[in-house]
Design goal:
Strands 1, 2, 3, 4, 5 and 6 form a six-stranded antiparallel β-sheet that branches. The chain is 4% helix and 61% strand. It has one helix at residues 3-6, and strands spanning 17-24, 29-33, 37-52, 55-59, 63-67, 73-89. By secondary structure, it is mainly beta.
């Protein structure tokens, strides 16, 4: 591996899209957070609720919610929730 690659402070700068799949237990609450990527969060099982200063969105199975980069949000899970998220780089 090159020395440049090992010391790169932002290894995702060339990545345009990334994905993340996870299953959360019932009643899990994710603390408020802000991220630098846009995200499309899809509930394949269970129900999640996304709270922001602009509103609250209930995301039932087979639905998704768009969370723009820089928006502080928190998420609550109802039932076991399987989440599939696609993140989009804002620097593309």
């Amino acid at each position: 591996m090159s020395e440049t690659r090992q010391t790169d402070p932002n290894p995702d700068h060339d990545v345009l899209v990334r994905t993340y799949a996870v299953s959360h237990p019932s009643s899990l609450s994710i603390s408020p957070r802000t991220i630098d990527w846009h995200q499309l969060a899809y509930a394949s099982n269970g129900v999640m609720t996304v709270h922001t200063a602009h509103g609250t969105w209930v995301v039932p199975p087979h639905r998704a919610v768009w969370i723009p980069a820089g928006v502080e949000h928190r998420v609550e899970m109802f039932g076991r929730v399987s989440v599939r998220t696609v993140f989009f780089n804002t620097n593309a």
